Amino acid sequence: MNLKSFFNKKKNNNADEEVENNEDKDSLNIKSDSVTDEESLFFKRALYVIIAVFAIMFFTFSVTFFLSLRGEEKTMVPDLEGMELVEALIDLQVKELYPRVQVRFSEDPMTKGTIINQDPPAGSIVKAGKRVTITVSKGAVVDKVGDYIGQDLNDVEQDLRILFTTSRPNLVIKKSIYEYDSTPPGTIIAQEPAPDTQISGLTELYFIVSRGEPGEEMVVGDYMTLTYSDVIKRLTRANIPFLFILDDEAEGNGTVVEQDPSAGESVATGLFLNFTIAPPEETAEGLVFGVFEYSIPEYPIYVDMKFESLSASRERKTIFETKHPGGKISIPYKVAVDTELILSILDKEVIRYKVTAE
Asked: Is 106:137 a contact under the CB 8 Å cutoff?
């Protein structure tokens, strides 16, 4: 092989290699273009999804925002008073309002089960969904007149007071007339209205009450030389009214030095017994002796009376309880400074007196 042939062959081989290299490059370029198109499609799809999500979020936010600006629907509160509970609940449901139900007694038993009050009032313009408070009547505490004949007037008054503690009374004692009778004093012997009369509103009671039998007498006991505290214990247990007078010049260390009427006398029941007492010889430091004086109305019958002391440390003590016809009161006492003396009639405080150092 000559040199020329060798170079021609070499040249042809180089040309073939160049062609092959060019083919490889074209193949790589084709593959590169294919990968680039797939990536571009993926990113486009991802971008569309992101845009769609943001569009949905924006739409949702816009709807919520405009709804909040518009606010809830307004509605008028219906007039519910006088309706039955079920009827009122239906009316509230139609108006898209919600009930808050309360119950209480009323004066008129005929209102039982009906609406007697509402809040907000009828005609108010409110947002739908608001709560409306409705008060339903349980009827009257008492729907008919009781049978009070044979009962003690004081007991009936107290029972009625307790019965209407939390509500306005629809049954009140208007007047009591006292007559002599064989029943114990204070006993109800007739009434108007009659027992079991139905109550339709405020009802007034009229009673005829026993004064007891006329001409009853008692024999006065001997209280001379007894201490005032012993006399008070004996008389209050027997419901005998009394008055004490202090004689500063007398000697006897707090005992009775004179009584009127005298021991053994026969006197009308209910007559006040009068006692003169001597002051105590010594009073311990911090204690005060004196006579509590006051006047209360006179009663046609005996009423419950209580006399108490309330110390500075707020300790309450009952000195005595009795039945009393009313009028003038005078009670000796010996208590600590700053003690309060409390007089009550029928469990109602009448006066409170604070004892001070002299």
From this structure: yes
Q: pLDDT tens for residues 199-208?
A: 877 889 999 9
Domain that holds residue 277: 217-354
φ/ψ of 72, rounded to 5, equals -75, 160
Per-residue pLDDT, averaged over 199-224, amounts to: 86
Mean pLDDT (whole number) for 219-238: 93
10-45, pLDDT tens digit by residue? 455 555 555 455 555 555 454 555 556 666 777 777
Q: Provide the CB-side half-sphere exposure for 239 (13 A, CA).
A: 12
- 162 in the same domain as 274: no
How far, in Å, CA of 183 to CA of 343, rounded?
29
What is the percentage of the chain residues whose pLDDT exceeds 90?
46
- What is the count of structural domains for the chain? 4
Q: Which residue has the tokens 């038993």?
A: 109
Model pTM above 0.90:
no
- 254 touches 225 (CB < 8 A): no
Task: Determine the residue type at 228.
Answer: Y
Does the residue 14 lie in any domain? no
Q: In this structure, is residue 2 part of a structural domain?
A: no
Q: Could you identify the residue written with the tokens 């309002």? A: 97
**Is 13 a member of any domain?**
no
| Stronger pLDDT, 307 or 86, i.e. the higher one | 307
Q: Which residue has the higher pLDDT, 197 or 269?
A: 197
In this structure, are 200 and 230 located in the same domain? no
Residue 146, domain member (yes or no): no
Residues 222, 350, single domain; the answer is yes
